[in-house]
């Protein structure tokens, strides 16, 4: 695949995500059970394990469908 096509597709995907952001921000991703949040005075650690697994699964399914 040419680099120009990759950049155009990536730019279009970012544009679509940016336009859909008001609706995407309402999804509960990042606040699911299994996401780790440790909050102490002067320290905050956040690791969205469950959210990362769900997003990875969705991307894998989409890529698998597109390859067929």
What would you say this structure looks like, in words?
With 68 residues, the chain is of the alpha+beta class. The chain has two domains: 1-28; 31-68. 59% of the residues lie in helices and 15% in strands. The protein is built from three helices and two strands; from the N terminus they run H-H-E-E-H. A two-stranded antiparallel sheet has the order 1-2. Strand 1 and strand 2 (43-47) form a beta hairpin. The radius of gyration is 16 Å and the shape is elongated.
The helix tally amounts to 3
Mean pLDDT, all residues: 87
* SS class: alpha+beta
**What is the N-to-C order of secondary-structure elements (H for helix, E for strand)?**
HHEEH
Total beta strands: 2
Strand content: 5-15%
Tell me the distance between the termini.
17 Å
The strand order across the widest sheet is 1-2
Low-confidence stretches: none
Instruction: Sum up the overall morphology in one term.
Output: elongated
Count of spatially separate domains: 2
Main sheet makeup: 2 strands, antiparallel
Q: Provide the gyration radius in Å.
A: 16 Å
Question: What's the arrangement of secondary structure elements?
Answer:
Elements: H1 3-19, H2 21-24, E1 36-40, E2 43-47, H3 49-67
């Amino acid at each position: 695949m040419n680099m120009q096509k990759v950049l155009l597709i990536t730019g279009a995907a970012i544009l679509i995500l940016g336009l859909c952001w008001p609706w995407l921000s309402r999804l509960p991703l990042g606040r699911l059970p299994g996401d780790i949040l440790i909050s102490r005075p002067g320290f905050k650690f956040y690791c969205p394990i469950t959210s990362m697994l769900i997003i990875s699964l969705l991307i894998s399914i989409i890529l698998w469908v597109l390859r067929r």
